Every structure is written in structure tokens, then in C-alpha cells.
Queue: 2 jobs
Job 1
Amino acid sequence: MLFQYIWISTNNNSGSNFPFFKELNNLSKLSTDFLYGDYVGVLIDSLNLSLQLHLRTSLKFTASKKIVIMSFRSISKLVGCKTSAAFIDNVFKTHNVRLFSSPAGGYVSDNFEFIKTSTVGSKNNVGVITLNRPKALNALCNGLMLEVAKALDGFESDSNIGAIVITGSEKAFAAGADIKEMQNNTYSHCIRTSFLEHWNRVSKTAKPVLAAVNGYALGGGCELAMMCDIIYAGENAKFGQPEILIGTIPGAGGTQRLPRYVGKSKAMEIALTGCQIPAQEAEKMGLVARVFPVDKLLDEVVKVGEKIASNSPLITRMCKESVNVAFETTLAEGLHFEKRMFHGTFATKDRLEGMTAFVEKRPPNFTNE
């Protein structure tokens, strides 16, 4: 089965008065019997929450833009609303409508409470996990992190996925761990349950994980971003470890990963004062790879994910492991590990294909072997 997604991103507060949204509401009245087979999920990122609640997320469409237009017109006739190809084409041009398709076997699930998952990119080889607790500014509760782990498991098992992006909303990547959830924890409970241990699933992911951070990334949110392999930020992003302000310390890597990113002195300042670091400063100190405009962030990070996914998955994994070893061992041991990994690439078909393609001046055809 081929799944398609239209993502309409708009800040139009009066979305319910926009004809396109009205027609979608009409289409949502179709019987469920009509919604089997290939379909388009309509995901609305809008300030109009009531609109989101009333839209059905499974509407029957097919793959290309042209077919989408034709199918939209065909279905519209069934519910008595008028839609022209020119009108839909204008929607594509003016309202940031993007088509993504996910091949059979792609890991996209509607069975999550605190996150959303999708596969994006021209080859559908980038998995996206969107944190989705807007009322709590994406505070990281236990349930959310368990869902993130489950989504990572799904993307890891999907051979078509070459990179994974974790993101939040424009207002908050994640404003921290859920304080209400941990407020009454005891020391014995934390020890017995290995509290926060399962958060490490992100850092143990074999495939590259990219953080796309807009808004607040504080406390556990900052730690979650640092678990990823590369952090990209929107211009409005703010990073920090404010645990000191509520009588505790970072518990998911803040005191360990932060000094490795920014050095001891700056890490001490951030951890001991609870101050917030804007995106531009975070980029200068090495915490963030690049800063993008807020509305361009996810698209740009997906492009990076596509670039990574175009390489040999096997060699990508070896490269990621080699870089991570640099943070775990001495220089001499790290250089030895790297050399052995380098030698190991000569046992792979992808190394031979890559070098042969370079010599023959053609694109490589990697097979993950």
C-alpha cells in the first residue's frame, strides 16, 4: 500500500473560513468504507485547533500532484463542493503544501498519544518524529519517551530509512522533563526503576539522528537534543539546563554531554546559573551545527537527512560509531579504532562500488553490503 501525506503549514488563524479547509471538512464526512486503499493523510499545522479536531486524517487520494488534483475534484463531486485544478494549484504555491509518500513497510503510525511520525523526502528515506504535547510545551513525560523509543525501533527496522529527525513545534522543541510526573519521586524509587534509563534509547540508535530545534530546548529537552548526532536550530531556539533552579541537577546527560560540546567553563556557567543560550550563541560555541529561519528549519534538516541517506547505510553506521568513540576513549585508542574501521570498509561491496563509481565518474549504487 502507498501512503501519501499532504502537510499544510499555515499561520492563518481564520483557517475555517478558507475555502480549501471548508472543502476538507466536507470531505471528512465521507463514509469510512470509501477510505480504504491508497490514501492521503491530511496533517494540518495551524493555529486553528478546532479545525484540526474536525478534520478526518484519512482521505482517498493517489500519488502525484496531478492525480491529487483530479481525485480531489472527483471526490468533491460526491459531497457537492466545487474545486478547480487552478484553485488547488494555487494552494500548492501559496500555502506551503508538500507531498510526501511512504512505501509499503514504511513506519508511520497513528497509534501514538504524545508524538507523530512520518516519512519524508523525495525517496521517503528520512523518518520524522514530532513531539506533540503542545499544552505542556512538549514536556518529556515517561509515556512520550517510551513512544519515541518505539518510533526509533520502527525506523531502525525499516531498511528504506537512512536518517531520522526529531523535532517539536515552533514554540518548543521540549521545554524540559515533566516536573509534575517526577515531583513526588523518592530516591529508592529512582534506584529501583532506573529512572530515566530508557531515555538513552536515542543515543543508542545506529542510524543518524538529527535534532531540529525551534523554541525552548531546556533541561531534558536540551539533553534530548544532545543525544542526537547533529543539532540544527531555528533562529528562535533557546538552550539551557535550568535544573539547578528547582533544586536538582541534570539527570539525562546534561553534566556529561554539555562539557563535551562547549567545554568545561561554559558548561559550568550554563549548569550552575540555569541561564538560557540563544541559537546564535549556541552555534558559536559548537552546540549547534547551523541556524536556519524558523519556518525553513525542518525542510533544511530533512535535506541534510536525505544527503546522509543517499550514502551507504553500512559505511554511515561505521563512520558514526567512529566519531562517537572519540568521546569515550583516549586519542591513541580512538585512532587505533578508526584505523581498524577504515580497514574494515575494504571488506564491503559498498566501498568497492563507491571508489569504482568515483573512478568511472558516475553516481554510486550502494547496496548496504
Job 2
Amino acid sequence: MLAPCRNHRTEAKYNVTTEFPYLGLHSASASGDIGLVQYALSHGQPVNSVLDGVLPLHAACAGGNDLVVKLLIEHGADVNAPRRYSDRNRDVSAPIVGTSGSTPLHFASANGHLTVVRTLLAHGATPDGADKHGITAEHIARENGWIECAELLAECVAN
């Protein structure tokens, strides 16, 4: 049942000609489609491009594909890049993952992607970085029941 979906993805046209020229890289990063991520990067898509305040690394960390995360880092993605404010992501409401200042570690921790959390930490992610509400990745992991992620982050902060 998944074969038609996979074939459709690999045959998809990459050139996005909307007001969001980097949508393909973000979508491929979020879905873990390493082939499209490689294609986008090899055809000049900026690894730190911004779409609604989100970078491809944020999307990849939320999606949880460690290979895509590593590929983006190898191409220069900033492991501590905060989500940026934009008119499209007005985040004046209650603290949630993805508000301004959320880092790739926030996105990975919120979704319990322990392998991605380890990869980010191994590449210099700041374990106690907080978003604009003062919320850390450890707090988000704990709040969402990802205790192993939360404990790893707490241990890194303590050391």
C-alpha cells in the first residue's frame, strides 16, 4: 500500500514556483525523504532557508529522521538556530513547541526523537537553551512524556 506513495514522492517535481521557493526542502526534511533533501541541497537550496520562521533542520527534527538531520548538519545547518518570528507564525499565545526561539532540540524533544536529540547534542546543540517563553527542550520532553529524552537533557545540563 505504501509503494504507490513512495513512487509518487520520488517522481515529484522539485522546482517549486510559489511564493515559498524552499517549501520542497522543508517538506522533504519533515517527511524524512533523504533523496529529495540531497537533491535540493545539490541544486542550491540554502540549508538554513526560512519558511514561516522554520528552518529545514527544525522540520527534520520534528519528523525524526536522523539521517536527514545528519545530512543537514553536514551541509552547515545551525544546530542551535532558533525558530524565527514571522507574520505567518504569530506566536503571542501560550507556550507551545515551535514558538519563536524554539531550537531543533525543542522540536526533536517534543516528539521524543531520542536518536535525533543525541545527534544534535553530539554536534554542539545547547541542552538548556530556552524559547521566548523560557521553556527548555527538557521541559517539553518531560511535559510530553518523553522521560528518556528529558533525563538525557538534564544530565547534559548538569555536566
